[in-house]
């Protein structure tokens, strides 16, 4: 049983402060006296914090502070504290100095909000919330500025869409570019594009697809012929960008449509999660081919992308069922195939996709339903991803996606952070390879444990 | 190596800010002639800073570098002096291009004509601002620009406007002799998507004064539209370049605010106007746009061709407003690139509404709001006695200056004078025992002993004789009030006053602004 004296760990590194006001050094004090000291220091710090509104920034200040422990009796308590993590409550009553905490509670309560908020984000503190895109004056091309706004306002979402949008914007930037004197296009263009890329990344973290495409673009730029006149070189680059989009995305989608479409038979019930541009194309194509099937769309907040898919599929005449993720268990028995898309696939066979896909895949696996992931090869990432905690993204709080119907005023329905409530919306999750039956790419249908052979299948072109 | 060269040449300027400085009809006689020199509305002081400074600082904070300032020919020298003087140090990074057009006080040139005339100078998307808009401190132009940027790419919006909620005038502060307060124009807008749908024009009011006529297509597209008559137009419009092409086609329009913008709101829901002007407002050829990316975007549903019979469709997009920008009909998603590469643009006009609790905004285009703005700035600051020795010595220690007043540089205030809730300009001379309450006194005025001023606005170089009493008057620059005169609720014009104008010894700051369309 941990001595209840130790209160939250992050706020109070001032244990290490020298005992300039204390009559005797800390090691000689009794436990109760040390507790009192800690309380006093905590309250002092809380008043300081209450005076300075630090809000979310408190998380970086507080979480990163190493909790200096000078009192050995507190060490085991602190370790237990850490394991208890976010659920901890600040004002645990201490037996000995009862009256002091009561006095300090009103002081502490004001700072509690920021402290709790600071502690609450600890779990995803390392990637935190996306910051609003700031405009570095005069250096960022207007198209990139506008594109970054589209990203940060979640107007253009989805791995394919973002990659295509980025490449299209770069075409504009390249066309507006002119080589300065004393340098060549192949050397300088990349340095010109780097701040634009950082501006986009500041708006929203880079997608794997964007990263692969930009790497390919860099390769093309550095390989461009030094003797070409500038406009020809720029046109060549733009056409290479067009070819990349056409070959790796559009054509790949068409091949996937045919391959995956052949797996859909008459009378099938296909289940899909959220909205993937590839899966949408597969379903529409299969329908125009004349197959008779129905679709179950599983959706979840906050993005509610499934609703858009629902409107498109039902406009095409496909029979659809729509439900939210918690209701998945009630329909899984009727499903014949699960078709999902991906944000990226990794060398160990795991699929990084919209948050909730892993649940769908696991559920399907338990009920022996084949899970087919439709993914182009340019989404392949050489790295290995083992969990969705190390690398993820949080959606901003607030009603960006119009998730709620307008029966009540928006403000009443939107969830905001409150002192006892922290809202986290991770956007991605990882589906382990064991839950996946097959991955359909444009080079073929691949079992998940052979995904690392994709570069080989492409002839080492990535 | 010249580093500056590379960045400025490689990045095209995104926006051009156009500031229209007109004559200021509603502010007559303040904007009347000062002797022979004109008195531009744009240089009238608000809180001892020229009015023009507020929009220019606002523009600079948002990162726009290029400004096109358009003024009538008589005002050119005054404005050019101002821009090149030290006072323009508050917006150092702006490149201001001062252009003139021929206009006299009597013959009005509409703001549309001005814009058509300078269309060749405008190559990119532009922001149109009046010279008299004072923005609230919490609202930055960047917010308006961001909304425009997002919507133009996402949705094909063509413009974004900004309306603000006016402050209700206090009882008793309104004087009919100063002119009627302009009544706000009713507008219809959609709050959720921030779209401006309909503005009631004076022509509409003439046609049918009792009803507001709305199209059914407007209501079926935006079923939750709101009607409001308490929002005022700030005359700040962020527009695409193609809007100018449409303006060239509508040659009979005179006023941007009263005629053109209400017309611009129509193509978004009126089918005939969309067919006629859609290709002008949103040309699809030869532009690299994001239509392919938007087709792949997971939160976007493609708007498609409208069918003639919208009601015959079996289904409709989710009615909770997620697809508000879309027309009702949908055709199957075309995966084929060759057809319909260009998205059907919505031609929306966006709207940002600035509520009263977000800060005080106003346009100083009539006398009431001019006075109100000055008073507002008084409440923001407290008065300190000037620190530099020379100015300090000019103010007598027995003068009672309340803390909610502002006194300009080098102004002399003699003993036993009371100054309350007023703004006094620079280089003024205020005599003994004067009482100045709630006034705006511009530069170089001379107020003799014992004068009593209450709620007045005095133009530059006004002379008020001893023991005169002025209550709620507005004087033209250089006017002289004789001693002992009592005037109430009047606009005092130099032409009323038969004595020779004694303004020759004053500095050359008089400007004349005559009627200008956009000021009303």
Automatic annotation (TrEMBL), chain A:
Entries under InterPro entries matching the protein: IF-2B-related, IF_2B-like_C, NagB/RpiA_transferase-like
Biased composition (Polar residues): 9-18, 57-76
Location of the protein in the cell: Cytoplasm, Cytosol
GO CC annotations, alphabetized: cytosol
Pfam family, one: IF-2B
Name the record gives this protein: Translation initiation factor eIF2B subunit delta
PANTHER family: TRANSLATION INITIATION FACTOR EIF-2B (PTHR10233), TRANSLATION INITIATION FACTOR EIF-2B SUBUNIT DELTA (PTHR10233:SF14)
Highest taxon in the source lineage: Eukaryota
GO molecular function ontology, one term from the record: translation initiation factor activity
Organism: Postia placenta MAD-698-R-SB12
Main location: cytoplasm
UniProt record similarity statement: Belongs to the eIF-2B alpha/beta/delta subunits family.
Region entry Disordered, spans: 1-100
Self-association and partners: Component of the translation initiation factor 2B (eIF2B) complex which is a heterodecamer of two sets of five different subunits: alpha, beta, gamma, delta and epsilon. Subunits alpha, beta and delta comprise a regulatory subcomplex and subunits epsilon and gamma comprise a catalytic subcomplex. Within the complex, the hexameric regulatory complex resides at the center, with the two heterodimeric catalytic subcomplexes bound on opposite sides.
UniProt keywords, alphabetically: Cytoplasm, Initiation factor, Protein biosynthesis
Biased composition (Basic and acidic residues): 25-42
Species classification: Eukaryota, Fungi, Dikarya, Basidiomycota, Agaricomycotina
TrEMBL record, chain B:
Annotated ranges, domain Nucleotidyl transferase: 17-153
Role description: Acts as a component of the translation initiation factor 2B (eIF2B) complex, which catalyzes the exchange of GDP for GTP on the eukaryotic initiation factor 2 (eIF2) complex gamma subunit. Its guanine nucleotide exchange factor activity is repressed when bound to eIF2 complex phosphorylated on the alpha subunit, thereby limiting the amount of methionyl-initiator methionine tRNA available to the ribosome and consequently global translation is repressed.
Organism annotation: Postia placenta MAD-698-R-SB12
GO biological process entries: cytoplasmic translational initiation
A GO term from the CC aspect: eukaryotic translation initiation factor 2B complex
Name of the protein: Translation initiation factor eIF2B subunit gamma
Compartments (UniProt record): Cytoplasm, Cytosol
An example Gene Ontology molecular-function term: translation initiation factor activity
Keyword Lyase belongs to the record: no
Keywords recorded for this protein, A-Z: Cytoplasm, Initiation factor, Protein biosynthesis
CDD domains: eIF-2B_gamma_N, LbH_eIF2B_gamma_C
Family assignment from sequence similarity: Belongs to the eIF-2B gamma/epsilon subunits family.
InterPro entries: eIF2B_gamma (IPR051960), LbH_EIF2B3/5 (IPR056764), NTP_transferase_dom (IPR005835), Nucleotide-diphossugar_trans (IPR029044)
One Pfam family it belongs to: LbH_EIF2B
Subunit details: Component of the translation initiation factor 2B (eIF2B) complex which is a heterodecamer of two sets of five different subunits: alpha, beta, gamma, delta and epsilon. Subunits alpha, beta and delta comprise a regulatory subcomplex and subunits epsilon and gamma comprise a catalytic subcomplex. Within the complex, the hexameric regulatory complex resides at the center, with the two heterodimeric catalytic subcomplexes bound on opposite sides.
Keyword Signal: no
Stretches assigned to the EIF2B subunit epsilon/gamma LbH domain: 394-479
Residue spans of biased composition, Acidic residues class: 504-520
Highest taxon, organism lineage: Eukaryota
Residues covered by region (Disordered): 297-328, 490-520
